[in-house]
Amino acid sequence: MTIHIVARFTARPDSVDALRTLLLGMLEPTRKEEGCISYQLLNNIGDATDFTFVEEWASQAAIDAHMKTPHLTGLVVNSAPLLASPLDVRLYTAC
User: Fold this and answer.
1) What's the gap between Cα 75 and its chain centre?
2) Which residues constitute the domain of residue 50?
3) What are residue 39's DSSP bridge partners?
4) C-alpha–C-alpha distance, residues 33 and 55, integer Å
5) Of 2, 1, 20, which Cα lies nearest the Cα of 10?
6) Strand order in the sheet with 88-92
7) pLDDT number for residue 30
8) List of residues 6+ apart from 63 with CB closer than 8 A
9) How many CA atoms lie within 13 A of 1 on its CB side?
10) Which pTM does this prediction carry?
């Protein structure tokens, strides 16, 4: 059974472009990771400050490895001052 992650980033209004650049930088390296089935970045049509990653991973082990990658750990640190609210990450399985 695969695991889905929904990770929501809400930018400060003055930081939308900077956050977008950071988040787009995650796509290529993450999609190359072992166990990454799907990794999409969405931007809310009605609220430009709202970015959401929708992810699918082959296993918890793949997620654990992803959480330790330099690109993810760097994103967490570098995005913190750009956010209007704390990062919201939720894990799901299909019913």
Assistant:
1) 9
2) 3-92
3) 55
4) 12
5) 20
6) 36-43, 50-57, 3-10, 88-92
7) 98
8) 3, 5, 35, 57, 91
9) 6
10) 0.94
Q: Per 3-state DSSP, what percentage of the chain is helix, strand, and coil (rounded to 5)?
A: 40, 35, 25
Q: Which two tokens stand for residue 77?
A: 């640190």
The tokens for 29 are 């390296």
Instruction: Check: CB of residue 55 under 8 Å from CB of residue 36.
Output: yes
Look at residue 93 in the predicted model and tell me its pLDDT.
97
Q: CB–CB of 30/68 below 8 Å?
A: no
**How many independent structural domains does the chain possess?**
1
pLDDT band at 78 (very low <50, low <70, confident <90, very high): very high
Digit-coded pLDDT (tens) for 10-44: 999 999 999 999 999 999 999 999 999 999 999 99
Q: Could you give the angle at which helices 60-67 and 70-79 cross, rounded to 10 degrees?
A: 60
**Residue 49 · residue 12 · CB < 8 Å:** yes
CATH of the domain at 40: 3.30.70.100
